[in-house]
Design goal:
globular, six-stranded mixed beta sheet, alpha+beta, 465 residues, 25 strands, PmbA/TldD fold, 2 domains
C-alpha cells in the first residue's frame, strides 16, 4: 500500500470534517488472493484476484453515515461524500477510545510465491485417490495477503499486513453398504508453512480409518439405551461448535439488543439478565483475537481499537459482551475490539474471532474414567440451533461408547439434543487439551463471512435424571 493511498484516506477524513462532521474515519484495504480447486483428480478452477477500496464513516449532527468506493481518487471520495449527504443516517454515540498508533505484520515463515501450491495439492490428491475407502474427494486451497490502513479524526492510525491460507477437504467414504461424509479445514494467519501436507495428510488418513471403523463395527443404540445415558464426553470439536453457536453469538451485543432479530434471530440474553448463570463453575469461555497464527487473528479491530482476550463466561457466569464502539457507547462502556468487516465495502459489525472453552486441569483419560459409562463424541456431521440460541442438536459422526471408564465400541449416528443451559450447567470436568478448528462465520445484511476458529478443551457433561 503506497503513501499516496494513505494520503487519500487522510484526505477523506479531513474532507468529512470540513463538511461538518464531528467524527470521521477511513479504512483502506488492498487484498491479493489466489485459489485452486481439485475435484476427483480434475482441476476444477483457479483464480487470482486483487482488489482495493476505501470505506469512510462519519458522524454529522449525531447521525452515522457509511459509504465505500473503489475509485481511489480525490474526485471519487468527493463524489461519495456528496452521495452520503443525501441519506438520513442513523443516530449514534460512539464510545471514547484511546488514540492508537501501530504498524503490525503477521509472521510468514514461507512465502506463497516461493512454493508450488497447485502441484502440491495435485500430488496429495493422487495419494488420496489410492485409498479405496475414499469414494469422493474435493479439495480447495485459498491464500493471499491483505494490507490495511485505518485512520480517524481522533488521531488513531493503524497499519496491518496479514497473510493467510485456508485449505478445505470434502470426503465421502464408503465401507460395505454405509457411507460417511467429512469436511476438514486447515490453515490460519501466516504463510505457506500452515499448509503442511505431511501433517494434514496424516490427520486425514487417521480420520478415514476411524470413520471406516465406525461404519464397519459401530453399534446403533436403542431408544431405551439412549435414555439411560447420563454422561457425555465432548471433544474440542464439539465443545468448539457449542461455544461458537450457543455462547459466542448470544453474547454479541447487537444481537442481544435486537439489531439482528429479523436476520438471524435474537439471544437468550437481554438488558435485564446480563450476569446470569449459564454454566457450571468449570466453564470459562474466551474470545481472543491475539492468538498468533489463528485464523481469526488481529491486534486492532476495524474501528482502530486494540484487541485482547474477552472472558465471555467466567466460572459459569455471563461476564462480558462482545462490543464495538456503537454498543459500548450505548452502554457507557469501552469497546473491547470486536468490530470486524469482511471487506472495505461493508460496515464493521460485532464479530467473534478465536472463541474457545478454556482448558482445565484434568487429563483426557480423567474425563473418560470419571464418566464411567456413557458416550464420547469426537466429531460431528451437522448441528442445529434455534433463533434464541437456547436449544441445539449436535449430530455425532465419530463417537464411542464409554464402558467401565474406558473407550469402547464405536457408536453410529449418536446425537446430542440439549438446551444451552443444560449443556453448560452439566459440565463437570474440563481437560487440559487445547485445539482450535477453522470456520467462516456468516452474519449481517448483506452477509459477511469472516475467518474464525473455535474449540479449546474437551469436557465431561453429566446430566441428571
Amino acid at each position: 500500500m503506497s503513501a499516496a493511498d494513505e494520503d487519500l484516506a487522510d484526505f477523506a477524513v479531513n474532507r468529512a470534517l470540513a463538511s461538518g462532521a464531528s467524527y470521521a474515519e477511513a479504512y483502506l484495504l488492498n487484498e491479493k488472493s489466489s485459489s485452486i480447486a481439485i475435484e476427483q483428480g480434475v482441476f476444477n478452477g483457479a483464480a487470482a484476484t486483487e482488489s482495493s477500496g476505501m470505506r469512510v464513516r462519519l458522524i454529522k449532527k449525531g447521525r452515522l453515515f457509511t459509504f465505500s468506493t473503489n475509485v481511489l481518487s480525490k474526485e471519487g471520495i468527493e463524489a461519495s461524500l456528496r452521495r452520503a449527504s443525501l441519506f438520513k443516517g442513523n443516530s449514534i454515540v460512539l464510545s471514547r477510545e484511546k488514540v492508537r498508533r501501530a504498524n503490525y505484520k503477521a509472521k510468514q515463515k514461507k512465502s506463497f510465491d516461493s512454493e508450488n501450491p497447485a502441484e502440491d495439492l495435485a500430488e496429495y490428491d493422487r495419494q488420496l485417490a489410492k485409498n479405496k475407502l475414499v469414494r469422493y474427494r474435493s479439495m480447495y486451497l485459498g491464500y493471499g495477503i491483505s494490507n490495511s490502513y485505518f485512520t480517524n479524526s481522533d488521531g488513531t492510525k493503524i497499519r496491518a499486513t496479514l497473510p493467510s491460507i485456508s485449505s478445505f477437504f470434502s470426503l465421502i467414504l464408503k465401507s460395505g453398504s454405509e457411507t460417511r461424509q467429512r469436511f476438514l479445514q486447515y490453515g490460519g494467519v501466516g504463510g505457506y508453512e500452515l499448509f503442511d501436507l505431511d501433517k494434514i495428510g496424516g490427520e486425514i488418513e487417521q480420520e478415514v480409518k476411524n470413520l471406516a471403523n465406525v461404519m464397519s463395527k459401530g453399534v446403533s443404540l436403542s431408544k431405551s439405551k439412549l435414555a439411560e445415558i447420563r454422561n457425555v464426553v465432548v471433544s474440542p470439536e464439539i465443545s468448539g461448535i457449542a461455544v461458537h453457536e450457543s455462547i459466542g453469538h448470544p453474547n454479541e451485543a447487537d444481537r442481544v439488543f435486537g439489531r439482528e432479530a429479523a436476520q438471524a434471530g435474537t439471544s437468550y440474553l437481554n438488558g435485564s439478565n446480563l450476569g446470569m448463570q449459564i454454566g457450571s463453575g468449570a466453564v470459562n469461555i474466551v474470545d481472543d483475537p491475539t492468538i498468533e497464527g489463528a485464523y481469526g487473528f488481529y491486534l486492532y479491530d476495524d474501528e482502530g481499537v486494540m484487541a485482547g482476550p474477552k472472558l465471555i463466561v467466567k466460572d459459569g457466569m455471563q461476564n462480558e459482551l462482545l462490543l464495538n464502539r456503537e454498543y459500548a457507547g450505548m452502554l457507557g462502556r469501552k469497546s473491547n475490539g470486536s468490530a470486524r468487516s469482511s471487506d472495505y465495502s461493508v460496515e464493521p459489525i460485532i464479530r467473534m474471532s478465536n472463541t474457545y472453552l478454556k482448558p482445565g486441569n484434568a487429563d483426557f483419560e480423567d474425563l473418560i474414567e470419571e464418566a464411567g459409562s456413557g458416550v464420547y463424541i469426537k466429531s460431528f456431521t451437522e448441528w442445529n440451533i434455534d433463533d434464541t440460541r437456547s436449544f441445539a442438536k449436535y449430530q455425532g459422526n465419530e463417537a464411542y461408547l464409554i464402558e467401565r471408564g474406558s473407550i469402547g465400541k464405536p457408536v453410529k449416528n449418536f446425537s446430542l439434543e440439549v438446551s444451552t443451559f443444560n449443556f453448560w450447567k452439566s459440565v463437570r470436568l474440563v481437560d487440559n487439551e487445547f485445539k482450535l478448528y477453522l470456520g467462516t462465520c456468516g452474519k449481517g445484511e448483506p452477509e459477511q463471512g469472516v475467518p474464525v476458529t473455535m474449540g479449546g478443551a474437551a469436557a465431561l457433561l453429566s446430566f441428571g435424571e
